[in-house]
């Protein structure tokens, strides 16, 4: 949001924020459908930036019919190739987290918070597997949980009950990483002395958590700024260099990771 606002202010345009409720969970919030698109067009807006929101083919067609430009930020579903999308390199981020744990000496690394339906989470899992294979570590399905986000605490209990529990956990988001730490502590384990934990996104780095979370930093501000710039570029009649832009991620090492116990 800060990145989009900064870009909008720089270009002297107004950014209107709407909160969407997926599906029909609430009637007082908007849904990203043809009706919503038509309302946006009638108000004279230049386009729509949809953040982590599923974009159905009917919405893409509605935007085209209404003359609205559409930019997606980390869409959770596969998109029509014509839609410009901005995100980070999820595959590389998954590799960065897993490679670091391998470098510390871990060989039994769990993966939690995944979802095979979500392209970004699926790519993070791909990077995780690629790092394991590159290091010669056998694929262990029992260490993988793809039950979705916000499931880590329950999955940690299952993973710890395995004959050979993990010595490290890679969570696909920071919330699940913190939930994993809570689950490990409930089981009487220390982080990172007994089990290391790595998160993803670097969205909770300001929290006074103990230990401070090692995580993959997603350049949120730059993603928002690039999304706004892309929309304005389309509105000006110019095509972006690429319809799918992935910004680089970086691993931020803090206190929640260490070498595995002897």
Short descriptors:
single chain, 262 residues, alpha/beta, Rossmann fold, 4-stranded parallel sheet, 8 helices, 9 strands, elongated
Quick structural overview:
This protein has 8 helices and 9 strands.
Describe what you observe in this structure.
This protein has 262 residues and is α/β, with parallel strands linked by helices. The protein folds into 2 domains: 118 residues, Rossmann fold (3-Layer(aba) Sandwich); 128 residues, Rossmann fold. The protein contains 8 helices and 9 strands. The strands form 2 sheets. A 5-stranded mixed sheet has the order 4-5-6-7-9, with helices on both faces. It is elongated. It starts with a helix and ends in a 10-residue tail after the last strand. 40% of the residues are buried. The model has no long low-confidence stretch (mean pLDDT 92).
- Main sheet: strands, sense, barrel: 5 strands, mixed
Radius of gyration based on Cα positions? 20 Å
Could you state the oligomeric state of the chains shown? single chain
Overall pLDDT, averaged?
Answer: 92
**Shape label:** elongated
Query: What share of the residues does DSSP label as strand, in percent?
Result: 15-25%
The end-to-end distance, rounded to whole angstroms, is 45 Å
Helical run tally: 8
**SSE pattern, N- to C-terminal:** HHEHEEHEHHEHEEHEE
According to CATH, what is the class of the largest domain? Alpha Beta
Low-confidence stretches: none
Q: State the helicity in percent bands.
A: 25-40%
CATH topology of the largest domain: Rossmann fold
Biggest sheet strand line-up? 4-5-6-7-9
How many distinct beta strands? 9
User: Structural class per helix/strand content?
Assistant: alpha/beta
Provide the domain count: 2
| CATH superfamily membership of the largest domain | Response regulator
CATH architecture of the largest domain: 3-Layer(aba) Sandwich
């Amino acid at each position: 949001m800060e990145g989009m606002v900064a870009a909008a202010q720089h270009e002297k345009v107004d950014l209107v924020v709407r909160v969407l409720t997926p599906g029909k969970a609430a009637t007082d919030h908007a849904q990203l459908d043809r009706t919503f698109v038509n309302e946006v067009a009638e108000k004279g807006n230049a386009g729509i930036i949809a953040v982590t929101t599923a974009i159905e083919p009917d919405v893409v067609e509605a935007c085209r019919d209404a003359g609205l430009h559409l930019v997606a930020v980390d869409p959770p579903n596969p998109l029509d190739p014509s839609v410009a999308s901005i995100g980070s390199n999820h595959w590389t981020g998954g590799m960065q987290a897993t490679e670091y744990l391998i470098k510390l000496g871990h060989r039994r690394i769990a993966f939690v918070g995944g979802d095979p339906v979500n392209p970004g989470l699926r790519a993070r899992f791909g990077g995780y597997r690629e790092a394991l294979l590159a290091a010669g570590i056998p694929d262990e399905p029992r260490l993988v949980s793809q039950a979705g986000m916000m499931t880590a605490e329950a999955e940690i209990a299952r993973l710890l009950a395995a004959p050979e529990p993990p010595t490290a956990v890679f969570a696909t988001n920071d919330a699940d990483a913190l939930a994993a730490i809570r689950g490990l502590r409930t089981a009487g384990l220390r982080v990172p002395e007994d089990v290391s934990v790595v998160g993803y996104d670097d969205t909770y780095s300001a929290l006074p958590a103990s230990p401070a979370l090692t995580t993959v930093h997603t350049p949120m501000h730059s993603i928002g700024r690039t999304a706004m710039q892309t929309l304005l570029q389309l509105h000006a009649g110019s095509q972006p260099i690429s319809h799918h832009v992935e910004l680089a991620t970086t691993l931020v090492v803090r206190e929640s990771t260490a070498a595995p116990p002897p």
